[in-house]
């Protein structure tokens, strides 16, 4: 007996490879309530004669909720063969079209049937909005922690980890709304028990959403037109990489390691690859971006850490889930790297 439906906004399912038939009938239970029963038969490939493989039952409340789900999923669906479209009662006004919210979090809350509880501060976060919402239904309910990262062109591991660590206590489910996300980062989020919601899943486009963000910023902040033209781009290389490889500390680390070391070209490519992923990324992503063969990087990591981790400080770290990260501040401090000069207009 289905007791509740819960919305999963994923948008990336795969159609099952087999087709089955479904038997249905309805009956009155011992309390006099109507129950609809659906029973699926085995697939055509099953060796034995067709028989029921699974049965579902739906009561009146579940049927009403399922009808709403079907209407939202298949808007304007035509009646079946031999059926006439239902006529509205005489004098009834036409059903108004539903206007969905433009804000991604509000639209997600609306589609999932949640109630917003609180707008959280975004101080210390790169997200543009963080919300706690609640599903009050028994069994299927609970608190949601929802984060909107659609203001970022490229979502980084560091951004996600920071927000998940600073999440409010005792939430049951999390949802991260993004423009798009790499497969590696999506796998990381799934392991962290967070649903990944793309703007396309909500019927919104990146271009449309970017326009909304710009309008909101213009209305609430004093921002120069130069800042609104395009978001800052992550540099393709780290300006301090060559300084790093020529620094006295690095050369001393390399001499101390002796023959148990890695080539400078590998260090250069790995550091630059990590910069392009926002100073952290999965081993597979860094490997690919650095031009290394699959599986080549992990055996080198102990040697690279001996070069870059000075006096026991974790400049280069391997985190849970196979995420490789460099602490930029530590890298600059330990190896005496000079930050690139800022244009006069960008100084505070």
Please supply descriptive tags for the structure shown above.
single chain, 348 residues, alpha+beta, Trna Endonuclease, Chain: A, domain 1, Arc Repressor Mutant, subunit A, 3 domains, PglZ_C
Characterization of the model:
It comes from Cellulomonas wangleii. Residues 242-336 form the Alkaline phosphatase-like protein PglZ C-terminal domain. Residues 73-103 are annotated as: Disordered. This is Alkaline phosphatase-like protein PglZ C-terminal domain-containing protein. InterPro entries: PglZ_C. The protein is of the alpha+beta class. The protein has three domains: 22-72, no CATH class; 104-227, Trna Endonuclease, Chain: A, domain 1 (3-Layer(aba) Sandwich); 241-335, Arc Repressor Mutant, subunit A, CATH 1.10.10. The protein contains twelve helices and eleven strands. It has helices spanning 60-73, 104-112, 157-165, 183-191, 206-220, 225-229, 241-246, 248-257, 264-276, 283-289, 297-308, 328-335, and strands at residues 22-28, 34-41, 52-58, 115-120, 129-135, 142-148, 173-178, 194-198, 280-282, 316-319, 323-326. The strands form three sheets. Strands 4-5-6-7-8 form a five-stranded mixed beta sheet. A hairpin with a 6-residue loop joins β5 and β6. α8 (248-257) crosses α11 and α9 (264-276) packs across α10 (283-289). The N and C termini lie far apart (63 Å).
């Amino acid at each position: 007996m289905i007791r509740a439906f819960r919305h999963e906004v994923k948008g990336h399912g795969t159609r099952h490879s087999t087709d089955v038939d479904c038997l249905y009938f309805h009956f009155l239970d011992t309390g006099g309530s109507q129950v609809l029963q659906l029973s699926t038969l085995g697939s055509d490939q099953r060796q034995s004669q067709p028989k029921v493989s699974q049965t579902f039952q739906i009561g009146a409340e579940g049927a009403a909720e399922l009808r709403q789900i079907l209407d939202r999923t298949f808007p304007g669906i035509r009646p079946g063969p031999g059926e006439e479209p239902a006529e509205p009662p005489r004098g009834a006004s036409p059903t108004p079209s539903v206007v969905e919210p433009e804000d991604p979090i509000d639209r997600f809350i609306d589609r999932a049937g949640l109630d917003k509880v609180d707008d959280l501060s975004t101080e210390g976060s790169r997200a543009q909005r963080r919300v706690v919402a609640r599903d009050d239904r028994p069994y299927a309910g609970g608190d949601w922690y929802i984060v909107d990262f659609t203001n970022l062109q490229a979502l980084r591991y560091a951004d996600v980890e920071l927000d998940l660590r600073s999440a409010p206590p005792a939430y049951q489910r999390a949802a991260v709304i993004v423009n798009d996300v790499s497969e590696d980062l999506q796998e990381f989020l799934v392991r962290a028990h967070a649903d990944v919601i793309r703007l396309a899943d909500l019927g919104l486009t990146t271009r449309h959403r970017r326009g909304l963000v710009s309008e909101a910023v213009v209305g609430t902040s004093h921002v120069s037109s130069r800042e609104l033209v395009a978001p800052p781009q992550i540099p393709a290389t780290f300006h301090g990489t060559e300084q790093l490889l020529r620094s006295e500390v690095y050369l001393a680390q390399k001499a101390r390691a002796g023959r148990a070391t890695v080539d400078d070209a590998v260090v250069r490519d790995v550091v630059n690859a990590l910069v392009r992923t926002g100073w952290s990324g999965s081993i597979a992503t860094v490997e690919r971006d650095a031009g290394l063969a699959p599986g080549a990087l992990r055996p080198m990591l102990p040697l690279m850490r001996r070069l870059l981790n000075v006096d026991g400080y974790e400049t280069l770290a391997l985190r849970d889930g196979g995420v490789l990260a460099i602490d930029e501040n530590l890298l600059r401090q330990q190896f005496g790297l000079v930050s690139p000069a800022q244009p006069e207009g960008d100084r505070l």
